[in-house]
Design a protein that fits this description.
chitinase activity; 373 residues; Chitinase A, domain 3; 9 helices; chitin binding; six-stranded antiparallel sheet; TIM Barrel; eight-stranded parallel barrel; 16 strands; Glyco_hydro18_cat; alpha/beta; 31% helix
C-alpha cells in the first residue's frame, strides 16, 4: 500500500448495487489506519479515540528464508509500538502489515508457491506477533499477477488460519487477527491479465479485507486531472462504489469488507488554468513529491497560495486549484459521505492510509463521527 501504486484504466461503465442488510454490530466496527514506519509523528501522538486498529507498515520477509528477520533495534521499535498503543486511553489493537506498495511482489509469489516456504513464513509471522505483543497480522501483497498466484494466495490463507487456530489452542490465548490489504476490485481485468481474488478462502480465513479504494489516477497518467479516490465515476468503473460492490457481488461477506480512504491528495499541472475541473487536460505533475501531498500539506498549500477549493458532487471528491496547480483529494465532506456509504451498505468499517497525514485529526474525526449505526 502506497500512494504510488498503479491502478487499472478500464473505460467501461458498469453499474451495480448492493442488496444487503445494514451491519449493526457496532462493537465490531473497524476504524483503522496504517502508520508508516518512517513517520515523523510517533505512535504516542495518535488520537486513539478515533480508531480501533492501527497497523505498523511495513515488515518484509527475507527473499530466501521467507522469515521476518527482526533486528534488536527493530524489535525495540515494534515492542514500543504495541506497548504504546495498548496503554493509550482508550487502547487500540496493534497489527503489523507485511509487504506494501513498494515491496517486491515476486518474493510473495515464490513464498506462496511452496508448502515449505509458506510454513516458514507463517511460523515466523506468528512468532513475531506473539513475541512483540501484536494483536494480529496483515498481508499487503501488491499484487498476485495471475490465476496461479491467486490460488497460492488462497492456500496461504488456509494454512495461515490453521496455524493461528493451533497456536491459540496451544497457548490458551485469543487467536491473532488475520487481514489483507487488497485491490479496490475483486477482479483484475488488465494489468497482468485477468484474475480474481479467492473469495471462499477470504470468507473462511480472514477477519476482514482492506480494500484500497484510492490511486485510481496518479503520476502514471499526467494527461488528465483525476479524483484518485472517487466514490462514483460517471464514465468508468474506476471508483470506490464499483470496487466495493464487486467484492460483495463476488460473494465476500459485507462484514468482512473494510473501505480504504486516502489522507493524501494527488496533483497535476493544468494545460489551461481556466480549465480546472476533474478530467481537465494536464501536462504533468503538480506540487509535491511525485505529485503527492498529504492532507496536512494540501491544507497548508491552499492557505499559502489562496487556492480555490471546490467540491464535485458527482464524484464525491474535493479539489483545489491555483494557476496551473491542481490537487484532487478527500476532505471532511467527501470522507463523511463515503463512510456513511460504507455503513449504509453493511460493510465492516474503514481504514486510512495513512494516520500521520491528517491535519489536526480533522478528517479522522469526521469519519469517526459519521460511523454511527
Amino acid at each position: 500500500m502506497a500512494p504510488l501504486a498503479r491502478s487499472e484504466c478500464l473505460f467501461i461503465v458498469i453499474t451495480l448495487s448492493f442488496s444487503v442488510g445494514c451491519f449493526t454490530a457496532s462493537a465490531s466496527a473497524v476504524k483503522a489506519a496504517y502508520w508508516p514506519s518512517g513517520s515523523s509523528s510517533p505512535p504516542s501522538a495518535i488520537d486513539t479515540s478515533l480508531f480501533t486498529h492501527i497497523y505498523y507498515a511495513f515488515l518484509m520477509p527475507n527473499n530466501v528464508t521467507y522469515n521476518l528477520e527482526i533486528s534488536n533495534s527493530k524489535a525495540l521499535i515494534l515492542s514500543n509500538f504495541t506497548t504504546t498503543l495498548h496503554h493509550k486511553k482508550p487502547p487500540v489493537k496493534a497489527l503489523f502489515s507485511i509487504g506494501g506498495g513498494g515491496s517486491d511482489s515476486s518474493v510473495f509469489a515464490r513464498m506462496a508457491s511452496s508448502p515449505v516456504s509458506r510454513k516458514a513464513f507463517i511460523n515466523s509471522a506468528l512468532e513475531v506477533a506473539r513475541n512483540l505483543g501484536f494483536d494480529g497480522m496483515d498481508l499487503d501483497w501488491e499484487f498476485p499477477e495471475n490465476p496461479k498466484q491467486m490460488l497460492d494466495l488462497s492456500i496461504l490463507f488456509n494454512e495461515w488460519r490453521e496455524a493461528i487456530k493451533a497456536e491459540a489452542k496451544a497457548t490458551h490465548r485469543a487467536p491473532l487477527l488475520l487481514t489483507a490489504a487488497v485491490y479496490y476490485s475483486v477482479d483484475f481485468l488488465i494489468f497482468g491479465g485477468r484474475r480474481s481474488y479467492p473469495v471462499q478462502s477470504i470468507n473462511r480465513n480472514l477477519d476482514w479485507i482492506n480494500a484500497m479504494c484510492f490511486d485510481f489516477h496518479g503520476s502514471w497518467d499526467t494527461s488528465k486531472t483525476g479524483a484518485h479516490a472517487a466514490l462514483y465515476d460517471p464514465n468508468t468503473n474506476i471508483s470506490t462504489s464499483y470496487g466495493l460492490t464487486s467484492w460483495v457481488k463476488a460473494g465476500v461477506y459485507p462484514e468482512k469488507v473494510v473501505m480504504g480512504l486516502p489522507l493524501y491528495g494527488r496533483t497535476w499541472k493544468l494545460k489551461d488554468p481556466n480549465q480546472h475541473k476533474i478530467g481537465s487536460d494536464a501536462v504533468g505533475l503538480g506540487p509535491g513529491e511525485d505529485g503527492v501531498l498529504t492532507f496536512a500539506q494540501v491544507e497548508k498549500f491552499n492557505r499559502r497560495t489562496n487556492a480555490t477549493v471546490a467540491y464535485d458532487t458527482v464524484y464525491v471528491a474535493a479539489y483545489s486549484f491555483v494557476g496551473t496547480s491542481w490537487i484532487g483529494y478527500d476532505d471532511v465532506r467527501s470522507t463523511t459521505i463515503k463512510v456513511k456509504y460504507a455503513l449504509g451498505h453493511g460493510l465492516r468499517g474503514y481504514f486510512f492510509w495513512a494516520v500521520s497525514y491528517d491535519s489536526e485529526w480533522k478528517v479522522s474525526s469526521a469519519a469517526s463521527r459519521a460511523w454511527t449505526p
